[in-house]
Amino acid sequence: MAEDLEIFSGTKQEQYEHLIPQLKALLDGEPDLIANMANTAAALKEQFNWLWIGFYLVKNEELVLGPFQGPVACTRIKKGRGVCGTAWANKKTLLVDDVTKFPGHISCNSTSRSEIVIPIYKNEEVFAVFDADSTEIKEFDETDKKYLEEIVWMVKGE
Ligand code: SME
User: Fold this and answer.
1) What is each CA distance from 70 to 1, 36, 77, 122, in whole angstroms?
2) pTM over 0.90
3) Which domains does the chain have, with CATH numbers?
4) What pLDDT digit, counting tens, does each position of 62-91 carry?
5) Ligand 1 pocket, 131 CB below 6 A?
6) Whose CA is nearest to atom 1 of ligand 1?
């Protein structure tokens, strides 16, 4: 298939509604987690162009950097540290309107202002987290949470 993504300009909801079927088609039948994470990060970068979009994988009780789009980032994050390690420890999506107000936020890039982190599970265990960072305060809201959870939970191929 052609791998060109059709970029849609409209409301945030319309952009997600347009992106999801394309992403589904791209991931359909592909069991490789890293390949799916890579294309998911790339598709979200193309559509939304946030500062940083990517995944960390749980390895030996640490988060280790996985496929991403954006500037270079910290390689390892301990459980309970930063937004990523907290979302992992609490098994809950975290929306951070202003990263300067999040105690322990790990600043991988000085221009990052807001962030969303979504844990990804297999058999109720977190095996990865998705992270998106924006240069805008309050970039991510409940609409992003709803659609991004749907999107990033597709990477495991279920
Ligand atoms: N800000 C994250 C670290 C990862 S980078 O932003 C890509 C955190 O506090 O966990």
Assistant:
1) 26, 17, 18, 27
2) yes
3) 12-155 (3.30.450.40)
4) 999 999 999 999 999 999 999 999 999 999
5) yes
6) 106
